[in-house]
Specification:
This protein is mainly alpha-helical. It is 73% helix and 0% strand.
Length: 160
């Protein structure tokens, strides 16, 4: 029980690392004061360009991947791996480094699902991509793809 609690805390701290903010600072930009004010890859794209946006996306996804990987490495059951992943997402959304403010958690959630439920991650990414390419709205893609996430888990993945 102590091990699970410790991994949940560590995942929250990892999730709290504001990748976009750190990358923007290296270029002298306060990401919270430009564009939408959000700390995620979409605002980094608008404010700093494709390279930093790709690094932000990768870094935010990696936070979720690493959290679930820790759970797997230490032999946690799928339920506990899910809690550890959720903790990383909550860390991103309520970063201890940003006074409990943060991003929307889309990329970190995708990172969690890449290890926790690869089929679901792929389907979610495909839905997001189709919506974004069709509408040009990343936020709409996130709302639709993650709104369908529970259904996709039920249909395409079962954690017994």
């Amino acid at each position: 029980m102590v091990g699970i609690a410790l991994l949940i805390i560590i995942a929250f701290i990892i999730g709290s690392i504001p990748v976009g903010v750190l990358l923007a600072k290296t270029r002298g930009v306060d990401l919270k004061r430009v564009g939408s004010g959000n700390i995620g890859a979409t605002n980094v794209l608008r404010s700093l360009g494709k390279g930093p946006a790709a690094l932000t996306l990768l870094g935010d996804m990696l936070k979720g991947v690493v959290a679930v990987a820790f759970g797997k490495y230490f032999g946690m059951k799928p339920f506990h791996q899910g809690l550890i992943g959720l903790s990383a997402i909550l860390g991103h959304n309520f970063s201890i480094f940003l006074h409990f403010r943060g991003g929307k958690g889309v990329a970190t959630s995708l990172g969690v699902f890449i290890l926790y439920s690869p089929k679901t991650a792929l389907i979610t990414f495909i839905i997001w991509t189709v919506v974004v390419l069709t509408t040009k709205y990343s936020s709409l893609g996130a709302l639709i793809s993650f709104g369908l996430l529970p259904l996709n888990v039920i249909l395409f993945d079962s954690k017994d």
